[in-house]
Amino acid sequence: MFIFQSDSAPHPKRCRWNTTDPVYLAYHDTEWGRPEYDSLALFEMLCLEGMQAGLNWITILKRRDNYRKAFCGFDPPVIARFSDETIHQLMNDSRIIRNRRKIEAIVANAQAFLAIEKEKPFSTFLWEFVDGRPIIHHYARPEQIPASSDVSRRMSRALKKHGFKFVGETICYAFMQAVGMVNDHETGCFCYEPIARQDGDLTKKADSGISSVKPSDAGNT
Question: Taking the model in full, what pTM does it have?
Answer without folding.
Answer: 0.85
